[in-house]
Amino acid sequence: MSELHLSNITKSYGSSVALHPLDLTLERGELVTLLGPSGCGKTTLLRIVAGFLAPDTGKIVLGGRDLTRVPARQRDMGMVFQAYSLFPNLTAGENVAFGLDVRRLGGDEKKQRVDELFELIGLPGMQGRYPAQLSGGQQQRIALARALAIRPQVLLLDEPLSALDAQVRLNLRDEIRRVQQETGITTLFVTHDQEEALAISDRVVVMQGGLIAQVGTPAEIYRQPATPFVAEFIGSSSGLSGQVSDPARGAVHVPGLNEPLSVGRPLTGFVAGDPVRIYLRPEELRLSGAEARLPGDLDVLVRQMRFMGAVTRVSVGAGEHELDIDLQGAQAERLHLGAAAALSIPPQAVHVVRDVR
Ligand code: ATP
């Protein structure tokens, strides 16, 4: 059974449309991320779900109950914001207990629930600290515990990690996912960071200009981007423009590239001449010295090499184009700037998207 069901949601601010008609369903216990660039409507949608903002049209149904006109306080949702929103004059424990006081849960039951939550977020014994005595990451853990204290049906997270340093951010990201999985709470998570979205989500909703561009698992979004926008927003890739030359054989022609490319299977739904964008992910291409060239490889020249730790990113000139390849460790040591090399593009590395721009 679906837990949270949004249908035909729209929102405009004056004459500017923030959300076009939009449908989205979250299954029970699922973590779904709203991902997209600044201004695409993520926060607007989250605020509509929370009840802070009324949609112009549409319906919000949670577990069969229509919430569209229910005030935020009565929606049974917990929320964590980007900036630490703890009450500075209350201790961490009092902050977490705040929602329970409002709901008149008292005595031992309250204390036990607060203690359990401090265990859950990995800060046992920190109940007596004031927010000013906690790091940013710890404050966000407390904010998470506070949101969960009322045992909401849905957890809403609005860029909860964006104010934190890189390392704290990664730790807390994994921690949020662990807590979410342990509690099994249906969660909607807003971020503009694609790596974060891929790492944390059951499904990702990629938004663009108030529309949903694609919904899918992280692997689907990464491997089968539905539009040029999704392909360019997620991961890094070299994008090329071309045309379908032989749809039955999966062949595409890229002007300025010496060899045709093949996806290795029929391009269904395409006809010869259809304009397409072709995306090549750096980690899916293979580069070797010119002496190891195999039939079908492209002759390329090494133009740039960037050591990135786990991989070295090599840019090569291929005909009129520049393509990036990631090489593991020692593979890159055999190459140098200006060297002739052989580039192999396996069919499964050729991602073809209809050019809709
Ligand atoms: P960000 O990542 O920058 O927060 P976002 O994807 O969350 O962006 P929204 O904040 O939902 O985007 O904004 C969507 C669109 O609506 C933007 O064009 C924004 O300028 C506009 N907008 C948001 N709030 C208001 C408002 N109160 N009045 C007028 N326009 C608004």
UniProtKB/TrEMBL annotation:
<dbReference type="GO" id="GO:0015697">
    <property type="term" value="P:quaternary ammonium group transport"/>
</dbReference>
<dbReference type="Pfam" id="PF08402">
    <property type="entry name" value="TOBE_2"/>
</dbReference>
<dbReference type="InterPro" id="IPR017871">
    <property type="entry name" value="ABC_transporter-like_CS"/>
</dbReference>
<keyword id="KW-0813">Transport</keyword>
<dbReference type="InterPro" id="IPR027417">
    <property type="entry name" value="P-loop_NTPase"/>
</dbReference>
<dbReference type="InterPro" id="IPR003439">
    <property type="entry name" value="ABC_transporter-like_ATP-bd"/>
</dbReference>
<keyword id="KW-0547">Nucleotide-binding</keyword>
<dbReference type="InterPro" id="IPR013611">
    <property type="entry name" value="Transp-assoc_OB_typ2"/>
</dbReference>
<dbReference type="Pfam" id="PF00005">
    <property type="entry name" value="ABC_tran"/>
</dbReference>
<dbReference type="InterPro" id="IPR008995">
    <property type="entry name" value="Mo/tungstate-bd_C_term_dom"/>
</dbReference>
<protein>
    <submittedName>
        <fullName>Polyamine-transporting ATPase</fullName>
    </submittedName>
</protein>
<feature type="domain" description="ABC transporter">
    <location>
        <begin position="4"/>
        <end position="234"/>
    </location>
</feature>
<dbReference type="GO" id="GO:0016887">
    <property type="term" value="F:ATP hydrolysis activity"/>
</dbReference>
<dbReference type="InterPro" id="IPR050093">
    <property type="entry name" value="ABC_SmlMolc_Importer"/>
</dbReference>
<dbReference type="GO" id="GO:0022857">
    <property type="term" value="F:transmembrane transporter activity"/>
</dbReference>
<keyword id="KW-0067">ATP-binding</keyword>
<dbReference type="GO" id="GO:0005524">
    <property type="term" value="F:ATP binding"/>
</dbReference>
<dbReference type="GO" id="GO:0043190">
    <property type="term" value="C:ATP-binding cassette (ABC) transporter complex"/>
</dbReference>
<dbReference type="InterPro" id="IPR003593">
    <property type="entry name" value="AAA+_ATPase"/>
</dbReference>
